[in-house]
Lipase (Alteromonas lipolytica), 262 residues
Amino acid sequence: MKKLKRYQYERYAILCQLAYPDAAANYQKVLKPFHERLLVDKYGRMSVRILWMENKKEVIVVFRGSLGLRDWLANMVFVPARIKQVDRHFYVHWGFKRLLNQPMFSSTKTINEALPLRELLVKVLEPLRQQGKRFTFTGHSSGGAVAVLMADYFERLEAKAVKRVVTFGQPAVATRSWHKHYLLHNKTYRICCDLDMVTFMPPFPYYFWHVGKMLWLHDDQIYENTPTHERFLKSLHSWLLRPITYHYMRKYIRNKTLFDEH
């Protein structure tokens, strides 16, 4: 499994931030080199951003996370629902199946031509695939959950079409059978930050499973595939010691950039 490089991490993280309507204006320059196409929900909100360059083989598909009470309530429905991933059936979190099936229309179409997200996205990506491009799927929170489901689906349709999957603060998606048959474990990076509670959701250990390689950002280090209980205990230990660690000289050094604008 190749390492995720710093510039890749930074690019995907900023693109996931830009999926939200309150994204900082100074991030917008990241979008300038790209062609883009948007998939929009029935409320007119951008839900998926597709980005590519003519001279690059990578297409980046960015899924927005939850917005508003309706989305968060759906995330809390911890009920498994049956879904077909081309050649296999799995049980996945009901809320994420709902997101895959929600009606979407393209920025080049009208709402009257809305299709389920999964169906529409495959149609939109197909011309790019025929150009020999490969696809990175990324997203934050529930957007990360949809990214892994969609990446696996697309890989089953078109073998070796997926370049990588990178998610941020992603909850678990589906049952153990999904984990066992997921096609992209060696290309999936699941990034967690400290004690992000969403990454422990749904709260049913050994029923809903994560996929891919976990990169845990904690206490100025990156830990790989740290077990859930160990991650929780390390975070608790860090919290208890935090008042002391603020006294360490490295904390002062880390904040040196603040003086650039002082």
Observations:
- The chain is about 35% helix and 25% strand.
- The chain has one domain: 6-226.
- The domain at 6-226 is CATH 3.40.50.1820 (Rossmann fold).
